[in-house]
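hiii, so i know i said id send this last week but things got crazy w the move. better late than never?? heres the sequnce for the chain we talked about at the cafe, plus the structure i predicted for it. fair warning i was half asleep when i ran it
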Amino acid sequence: MTPMVRSAALAGYIDLTLSLDVDPMLLLRSVGIATATLTATDAWLPAARVDRLLERTAHETNCEDFGLRLASRRGLTNLGPVALVAREEPDVRSAVNVVLRYISLHNEALRTRMIQIGALTTIHIQAAPATPLGRQSIELTVGVMCRILRELRGPGWDPLSVSFRHNEPSQRGSGCQILGSAVEFEQSFDGIFCYSHDLEASNPFADPLLRPYAREYLRSLAPSGESVAEQARAIIETLLPTQQCSAATVAARLGMDRRTLHRRLARSGETFTTLLNATRLDLAHRCLTRHDRTLSDIAAELGFSELSAFSRWFRRHAGQSPSRIRAGQQPRSDPLDPAAADCTRRRSVMFHWT
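okay and structure toks below
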C-alpha cells in the first residue's frame, strides 16, 4: 500500500513559495498534485509526491531550508484530531506521546519514537520501511516537532540539540532558528534531544473534564494502533547503533518479557531474528544510497562491531556485497509514481546557529 499524507502537510506551501518568487502551481503540477487538494485539509496525497514536491521546490527556490521555513508556519493545530487529544493531556510528555503514537493519522510515511535514558530523552523521526524521505521532509517534520514542544513548554524553550542524518547545508537560512542553537549533522538518527524533566511540565491547554472524551474520539479513529511487530521494528532501529539490540531489551521497552514478545511476534508470522534482519537490511539499503556515509559508519549504525562482519551478513542476506550495491546506485529517478488511485482512499558536524 502506498503511504499517504494529509494535504494539511502542505499548509502554507503556496504562500511560502510565492514569497520566494517561484510559481507554486507549476511545481504542484510537475509532481501530479492537484491544486484543489490543498484547500481540503483532510485530502490524502501520496507521500512520495509530497516528498518530491518539497525537494524540487527547495531546488527551484534555491532555498535549502525550505522545509524548516514551512515548519515555522505550523503548530499543534495542524495535526487535526491528534491535536484535539494532545491538547487535553495533563503534561507535555503525554501530549507528545499522543502525537507520536497517532502520527499515522496525519502522515503514514513516518515512524516516531520517544526514548528516555535517565535525564535525557530523545525523539526519533524516521521514514516508514521502504519509504525514502528527502532532506526537506525530514527537516519539516523535526521542525514541526520543535514548534509543538515550544508551544507546550513556552516560547523561551529550546531543545538541547537537534540531530540529522544528512550533511550540513551550504548556507544557514532563517528557517533554522526554530531548531534552537545547537544542530548536529551526519548523526545516526534524525530527531531531538531534550532534558527529561522538560517533558514533565504541565500542559497549559489541558482540561481534565474533556480528556476522556478526546481520548475516546481518537481511539475511534485508530482503534488498533501499531502492531507489536511495527513497534518492535521501530525500537530495533533506535537500538542498533548502541549494539544492545537484544530481544530482551526490545521486550522491556515494550513492557513485556522476552517470551511474550516472541509469542506476539509469532502471531503475525515473525520471529525476533527475522524482524531484526529485515530491519537491518532495509536500513542498509537506505544508508547505501547516501554516498556521504562510509561503509564503516554504516556497519556501526547497524550494530556491527567490524566492517567485515557487516559485509558477510549483507552478502548472505542481499546476495551482493555492500560495495557493489553502492557502486550500482544511480541518481534518484523522478517519475510520476502510479499512486493516483490511492488518493481517493483518503544525518559528526556540529555548529551553533547565530
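btw Residues 227-327 form a domain with the Arc Repressor Mutant, subunit A fold (CATH 1.10.10.60). thought thatd interest u
miss u guys!!
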